Amino acid sequence: MTAEPRIDRSPSVSDEVRQTTCYMCACRCGINVHLKDGRVSYIEGNRAHPINKGVLCAKGASGIMQITAPSRLRTPLRRVGPRGSGAFEEISWEEALETAVGWLKPLRETAPEKLAFFTGRDQSQSLTGWWAQAFGTPNYAAHGGFCSVNMAAGGIYTIGGAFWEFGQPDWERTELFVLFGVAEDHDSNPIKIGIGKLKARGVRVISINPIRTGYSAVADDWYGITPGTDGLLILSLIHCLLQAGKVDLEYLARWTNAPFLVNGAEGAEQGLFLKNAESQPFVIDRHSGHPAPWDGRDVDPDLGAVWAGHRTVFQHMAEEYLKPDYAPEAVAERCGIPAARIRGLAAELARAAFERAFIHPQPWTDFRGNRHEGMQGRPVSFHAMRGISAHSNGFQTARALHLLQIVLGSVEAPGGYRLKPPYPKPVEAHPTPHFVATPGKPLTGPHLGYVRSPADLALREDGTPARIDKAFTWDAPLSAHGLMHMVIANAVAGDPYRIDTLFLYMANMAWNSSMNTAQVMQMLTAKDGDDYVIPRIIYSDAYASEMVAYADLILPDTTYLERHDCISLLDRPISEPDAAGDSIRWPVLDPDRDVRGFQTVLLDLGVRLGLPGMVTDDGQPRFRDYADYIVNHQRRPGVGPLMGFRGNGDETGRGAPNPDQLARYIENGSFHQAHVPAEAAFMKPWNAAYQDWAVALGLYDTPQSYLFNIWSEPLRRFQLAAEGHGDRQPPDHLRARLQVAMSPLPVWYPPMGEAPGYPVHALTQRPMDMYHSWGSQNAWLRQIRGRNFLYLPTAIWQAQGFAEGDYARVTSPTGEIVVPVAHMAALNPHTVWTWNAIGKRRGAWALSKDAPEAVEGFLLNHLISEVLPGEGRVSNSDPVTGQAAWFDQMVRIERVGPRAMAEPQFPVLPDPPRSGGGRGQGPSKKRAQNIQGFSDPAAEGRL
Amino acid sequence: MTCLPGKVDRKLGLVIDLDTCVGCQACVTACKGWNDQGYGVPLSDQDAYGAAPSGVFLNRVHSYQVTPDEGPAAIVNFPRSCLHCDNAPCVTVCPTGASYKRAEDGIVLVNEDACIGCGLCAWACPYGAREMDAAAGVMKKCTLCVDRIYNDNLPEEDRMPACVRTCPTGARHYGDLSDPDSAVSRLVADRCGYALMPEMETQPVNRYLPPRRKGAVEAGPLTPLVDVQATGFAGWLDRVLGKI
Questions:
Q1: What are B39-68's pLDDT values in tens digits?
Q2: How far apart are alpha carbons A304 and A320 in whole angstroms?
Q3: Residues 6+ apart with CB under 8 A from A549
Q4: How do residues B147-199 score in pLDDT, each as one tens digit?
Q5: What pLDDT does residue A2 have?
Q6: Residue B243's pLDDT is what?
Q7: What is the pLDDT of residues B106-140, one digit of tens each?
Q8: What is the CA radius of gyration of chain A?
């Protein structure tokens, strides 16, 4: 044997490491970007970062393929051919900005609502919203309406917080973790890290999901529920817990509105809380038997009180859910889960919450002034995301899941679900919507908010919608994130009105982000006489996405390593239950193209339009660029986009702008944390120490203690209107559905997408290794998952004699697609599904015309209508929040045998001017020989 | 043909927890990213934006469906890379000595200067763990990040394979499997870790931890406090509030 070769065990790793924030999804992990010879050589997770603690997902570690993708746009573009033809000319930034100003300035001076400004995967909504407010258009929102607003709104209206990334299980203490229908990017790495911690401790994980992939694959038990029935299952679990008395009565009495008295007298006040002379709800004290203030010290609220014939919320709740309608035997068939399994799950929940209960030895004082020697631990926790949310009953299902956590006493309890600052935050601490457009003036407040009653709806004096997306109308009264998915369809229908300019950022509305995509493409090119029905479209994106071809003016954005950003407490920060956190991005690379960060461009436009807040009194730019805004903008005196290193550098939360702030962030790994004191770590909504800490940090200006809303008075006010009470009345065609959907107690009703003749549920889920459309241009990620199949359950596969290589025709009331199929046994028998983010339009994303993503990849979107059948163009969305009901979709499946191409196909998109470059063949050390190593032998049906 | 070392001082390798791996592919691209700029030639990609993109990956994750006799079907996510076998057929088959097993730590490596790209090692490996680089014409495989684990230029806590460092669920463990007291050996002992395809007599160093048993726990349903149908809601209320 020859001697072993000598190898270099300590090669130089890189010339320099720059720490910034990932942008390959909404997770926003800290990354170490290694540079060699001025180029990015390697990207890894930042160990010190609170979100990812050093780990990184498949997307993050492939960022190097993202920043070198040939699909990067390189210069501003102006459309020169017909819209959709892809014919553009390259123009200068000055020309581009002046063109935009030429379109926007007259609108602001005459009819600001003629601008609709909507952003997609925007992580700067506190800036974009503020800009739209200054412009004065009511038509602004980000993409939450087609993402997961039900999760946000269902949570805020119930517990003053939400799942999403706004809280997390107490990973260290929980003894049972239950996941409902999780989408795997909210939030991605923290949940993986958490599941890893549970697995290491041997803690049981249960998944309730029609599809057993990903987190469901490692769950210790799996309930393959039928889509859209999660709410019914949850209420059945509550039924079982109530029946057995396994509910946390003390928690309900102290920390929820369970002891409030509900007005039982028929009339316009029925179902609202009884109020005292100060207009405050009150409780009955168990000792005195008399009314007492809800927030009074030493008051012992009586859950069983009856006062002047009015009963408590607790009694209404218990009586409702004890009904035989919610018995496991009554719901089993509908949910696709045997009754004994439902009873078994209820028993597991009760055992974890009550038999494994513990006292966390941390003294604390509640907002009433009562001192407690310890904190009651309830070690059962939950997480849920789009799977339960993207249904037309998703808002109430999210409410039901929070109610389940509440009756177990686990929200904010040690071992349970913990909120992250700035949450908890009650509805009352959020703004209401602002929507009155006045020529030449800003809006009087933020666009988006949380309505309390019909009086807050965004209706004009004649009762018509004020907003183009009809947010905050009777169609979707609590649409806290707007309805971006309705903007194009409404504008083309002129319902409620036409617009002039559609301004989009990072939103692929001509492809995967729209329902009914084929028709949306027609809408974007629809003409009225010589002009387009939507006369002008401005679009900003970093890449040659499908949407680019449909814009008239392209403002090319940078990649995520070439830009400034702030991940702000004013928006969606990176907090942990034990610390508020925010972070930045900064240009670790200089762009090699004529591109600009969109936020800087937006501020430039603001200056050219003279928007308030963006210009000084003498008309000069107030901010040099976005970086300057991040440091110097103040939303309230002393409170700006970043909390860290304020004043002279040692003030946190509140303090004067510090010119060195960004440098200090960069020194600190591009993030900052403010730690929650131990006494304030749990029971936050009611914990005086937490409230004082939050005020000191600037999260709000006065303590905001509140009770969880088992009974929702805002919902009841809308239900009263639907019953005919009050001046503001819904149209008759919406009355019946509002009466059901606006139930003040969580309720289940069948999803609205059900149609006779379409017996199969059709779902999508996002792979953990792809982010929306972006993955397709990533040379590494597309090798991992370059095709998607429609996965069929065994029953359908066998009944129709499907074989490998087959295609199926999938039909809905809206359309049909012909797509490749694969068999999957670990699947609900009435459900088919596919990965989203794979299918591409030919010619887009700098892929070759025969790329598998475009030839065999497909979208389900063509099957999904944006409106429901019937009167009034009612959105195919949750009737409470306007959340796009993607997962209501029902279809019919028919085998068509082998095919070579998915349908529908569309004309190949022309290639816009772009950067080129990208991943070529590696430097050849030797001439390649005609021998194949093992390429991927993954013909085993990789999922 | 090439000889294996008579004995190795240590057996460095991976322990992969199949009960925890969610199939997220993080290890796949962290490996690709590190090794694209690490030991040997880059991991080239061909037709990167075309109809049939293919490139070298030293670590891949596959998802398999399992349909047990009892209970519902399941998915097992299975990361696959070189197992650094004690009795490595890829080494003994190598005609040039390019493939070798290090006596110091048991890592199986390819000396690319000596590799003629004949591909015999890939055919000999029963695990499909080697991939030919089509641009460079040399065989690529997992190096256990030999350029990380001893690297003085990295912080000590980072001296581990890139796949282990990045794994979000902590399903990948790295250590010395010849030391019965090492954390990885204890994991293998506690969780019944197993070698892949022992019948091939390759004696892999890497171990897999099997998925834990899944399904319902043995426990009775909850006992109702009262028969609500018989007592009415008032009877239930009295009983439940009597508990306070």
A1: 999 999 999 999 999 999 999 999 999 999
A2: 15
A3: A83, A84, A85, A86, A510, A844, A909, A910, A912
A4: 999 999 999 999 999 999 999 999 999 999 999 999 999 999 999 999 999 99
A5: 56
A6: 60
A7: 999 999 999 999 999 999 999 999 999 999 999 99
A8: 27
Tokens 């370059």 found at: A786
CB hemisphere CA count around A404 (13 angstroms):
29
**Closest Cα of chain A to B194: distance in Å?**
18
Give the predicted TM-score (pTM) of the model.
Answer: 0.96
Within A202-327, where are the H helices?
Answer: 214-218, 230-243, 249-255, 313-321
Ordered DSSP codes for A877-929: B-TTT--B-GGG-EEEEEEEEE-SS-B---PPPPPPSB------PPP-SSPPP
Q: Nearest CB to A922: which of B44, B112, B233?
A: B44
Q: What is the pLDDT of residues A14-51, one digit of tens each?
A: 999 999 999 999 899 999 999 999 999 999 999 999 99
Residue contacts between A and B (CB atoms, under 8 Å)? 345
Kindly determine whether residue A933 and residue B25, on different chains, have CB atoms separated by under 8 Å: no
Question: How many angstroms separate the CA atoms of A107 and A327, rounded?
Answer: 58
Using an 8 Å CB-CB cutoff, list chain B residues near A204.
Answer: 217
Q: How far apart are CA B162 and CA B144, in angstroms?
A: 9
The number of angstroms, rounded, from the C-alpha of B221 to the middle of its chain's C-alpha atoms is 39
Per domain, the residue ranges of chain A are 760-898
What b/e string do you get for A844-871 counting C-beta neighbours within 10 Å, with b at 16 or more?
bbbbbeebbbbbbbbbbbbbbbbbbeee
Contact A761, A334 (CB under 8 A): no
Overall CATH class of domain A760-898: mainly beta
Query: In the numeric block, which tokens belong to residue A799?
Result: 């009944």
- B243 contacts on A by Cβ (under 8 Å): 245, 249
Q: Cα A8 from chain centroid?
A: 47
Give the H or E element holding residue A293. strand A291-293
Identify the band that residue A754 occupies on the pLDDT scale cut at 50, 70 and 90: confident
CA distance A10 to A270: 76
- Measured from the Cβ of residue B113, the count of other Cβ atoms closer than 10 Å reads 11
10 Å CB burial of residue A387 (0-12, 13-18, 19+) is buried
- Which residues of chain A have a CB within 8 Å of the CB of B114? 5
> β-strand A140-141 against A115-119: which pairing, if any?
parallel
Task: Annotate A99-161 with three-state secondary structure.
Answer: HHHHHHHHHHHHCHHHEEEEECCCCCHHHHHHHHHHHCCCCEECHHHHCCHHHHHHHHHHHCC
A655 pLDDT exceeds 60?
yes
Q: Does the beta-carbon distance from B152 to A247 stay under 8 Å?
A: no
Look over chain A and give the mean of its residue pLDDT values, rounded to a whole number: 95
For B72, the closest chain A residue by CA position comes to A826
Residue type, A247: V
Torsion A166-A171-A173-A178 (CA) sign: positive
Confidence of residue A873 (pLDDT cuts 50, 70, 90): very high
Which structural domains are found in chain B, ordered by start?
12-209 (3.30.70.20)
* Rounded Cα–Cα distance for residues A568 and A864 (Å): 35
Tell me the pLDDT tens digit for each residue of A184-242: 767 899 999 999 999 999 999 999 999 999 999 999 999 999 999 999 999 999 999 99
Nearest one of A175, A174, A171 to A197, comparing CA atoms: A171
> What's the confidence (pLDDT) of residue A755?
84
Average pLDDT of A576-604?
98
Q: Which residues in B47-90 belong to E strands, given as ranges?
A: 54-55, 59-66, 74-81
In this complex, the residue of B53, B56, B74 whose CB is nearest that of residue A217 is B74
Of A69, A15, A29, the closest CA to residue A191 belongs to A29
A383 and A182 in contact (C-beta within 8 Å)?
Answer: yes
Q: What is the mean pLDDT of residues A125-149?
A: 96
